[in-house]
Design goal:
Helices cover 27% and strands 34% of the residues. With 190 residues, the protein is α+β, with helices and mostly antiparallel strands. Strand 1 (87-91) and strand 2 form a beta hairpin. It starts with a helix and ends in a 5-residue tail after the last strand.
Length: 190
Amino acid sequence: MSDLDLLTQSLARNVRRWRTERGFTLDVLAARAGVSRGMLIQIEQARTNPSLGTVVKIGDALGISITTLLDYEQGPKVRIVPADQAMRLWHTAAGSYSRLLAGTEAPGPLEMWDWQLMPGDSSASDPHPTGSVEIVHVTAGELTLTVDGADHLVPAGGSATFEADTPHTYGNRGDVPTAMVLAVSVPPVR
């Protein structure tokens, strides 16, 4: 089975499991996540490979991390993720990418990401649930972080925190690649 097939099967199983645990019908989850009921059916039947944005919306609506949605192992309390097993979930033809390094439920979803943005590339994110926070540390280049329409420049070696319950974009307006590590904390579903 390919890595993509394994992730598709894991996503199907875990969306169904967490939707059932939360007591959500397909219609309720679709409304909370802002995705169609038909898309959820295709996901739960492992008939589609949804976009990263769709997976994030579903995780936010369920109050769980993307790591939990895509996890295919029920492991011990310590989980080591070798570099070659970090999940690459977004990329562009120019070479930009994001890799989900690790995540946990503590007490809500907490994720750590490795990002690279090539010159001229950007990635927009829909607002996360109220109370969500992100921390970014730029290791190379310069990040243009746009939060709620306002640009903030974060140079190499610099870090930023922000409330992520508003639209935000990670961009590279420079002429060298931007590398960064990003942590996302989402409050638990009540």
